[in-house]
Amino acid sequence: MKRSRVITTALVFALGAGVVAFAPLPGASVKPANRRFRVEASSFKYAPATIKANVGDHVTIDLVSTDVVHGLYVDGYDVSVTADPGRTASLSFVANRAGMFRLRCSVTCGAMHPFMLGKLHVGRNDLLWRALALALLAGLVGVSLAPMRGVRT
Description:
Immunoglobulin-like; alpha+beta; single chain; elongated; 2 domains; 4-stranded mixed sheet; about 25% helix
């Protein structure tokens, strides 16, 4: 009895995990929008350090340098812009690929220049929702097997 229940529970968990991992999430299509971000570059950092957009969005980044000449290059999209101190420069592109893309300073701006990084996250945070669903599924499996603790066959 106990063995068949464990096997059944394991099969249900494996099936549920497969569905959670590979099934498309509801509301997966989001209408493209115009997204405009103001990014300040100063003392080897970008503020905000992470910006987010959805696939298909038209993204405009206004780069404002507060101290010396800084640049901003978006890995994976091959676009860049340079801003003089106290000035704003803009770049635009369509975020047509999902993923995490690094923002890098494209102008040597001092000793810590290689560490001046930011992130562009394109797409929804599906991984978070999938992880939460797997955790809930694992909790349900634990609850279903809990009454069998201490039972010996």
